[in-house]
Amino acid sequence: MEQIRKYFEKAVKLTDKDWQFFSSKLIKQEFPKNHHLLTVGQTENYLSFIETGIMRFYIPKEENDLTFAFVFDHNFVSGYNSFLTKTPSICNIETLTKTTLWRLTYNDLQNIYGETEIGNVIGRKASEDLFLNKSKRELSLLNETAEQRYLNLFTEQPQLIKEIPLKYIASYIGITPQALSRIRKRIS
């Protein structure tokens, strides 16, 4: 839980009173590898902080799922469109490793906004990080080759990328597993 406080205190100092109120709303949950936190058609009820673990966002397809995001330790994770609008999700969120999350319900987050001086800053920081990760992904798809996207993922999370099956990495960078194999041979 202290990792969350450190995360927020990079941007703003939390009073002990605000932190106590905020942390009292957090729910710690552990999930096994390959657990679905959210599936298509469900409504997202949580904004979560990953203490440990790797998560994958994907759209299920008959032949090959379309993986569009990975989220690693010490980041926020949520089916955020569904969370904000209270509408059914159009994607699945799955744990790729054993995962520990600190979670806030939508209603608890609204209480934090209303009851603490720092609540809106906390919400804004979480929203900004989710937005920046989404923008980074979109720009990567528009401006980089598949090889560059693979190298970026490998550079950003070298120890964790080994935990992700190659078929998911291939889907994420927009190529077939065979094309990924050729890239890996070329750069090794």
From TrEMBL:
This is CarD family transcriptional regulator. Coiled coil: none annotated. Pfam families: cNMP_binding. Residues 29-113 form the Cyclic nucleotide-binding domain. It comes from Flavobacterium akiainvivens. Transmembrane segments: none annotated.
